[in-house]
Design brief:
Number of helices: 0
Low-confidence stretches: none
Structural class: mainly beta
Strand content: over 45%
Helix content: under 10%
Largest sheet: 7 strands, mixed
């Protein structure tokens, strides 16, 4: 069964850090561009960050630039999202998705995980 599984979410205080992981089973992530998305309560889903299959190209939403870092370990079939200096407005369900292409993109996603909840609160 082909699936993506996110982990690492939880409750964190403002200014704290979390690292989300996106692991694949049933297929290798090496050939796919990967995106992280989030859906906050009452809001549309938005693209947070993406990374190309080689890791050489990345992109970030303006709201997370300088605070979040995306990376991948193809040997471990896993993509990470390091979240630093988190803010209450980062509270959302975070999803990872694999693109149909090897590019960094927020469009044309082929596989989706079920999400992991991040809550930023004191």
């Amino acid at each position: 069964q082909l699936q993506l599984v996110e982990s690492g979410g939880g409750l964190v205080q403002p200014g704290g850090s979390l690292r989300l992981s996106c692991a694949a089973s049933g297929f290798t992530l090496n050939y796919y561009g990967i995106g992280w998305f989030r859906r906050a309560p009452g809001k549309e889903r938005e693209g947070v960050s993406c990374i190309s299959s080689s890791g050489g190209s990345t992109n970030y939403a303006d709201s997370v630039k300088g605070r979040f870092t995306i990376s991948r370990d193809n040997a471990k079939n896993t993509v990470f999202l390091q979240m630093n200096d988190v803010k209450p407005e980062d509270t959302a369900v975070y999803y990872c998705a694999a693109s149909y292409s090897n590019r960094c993109s927020f469009d044309g996603m082929r596989y989706w995980g079920k999400g992991t909840l991040v809550t930023v609160s004191s």
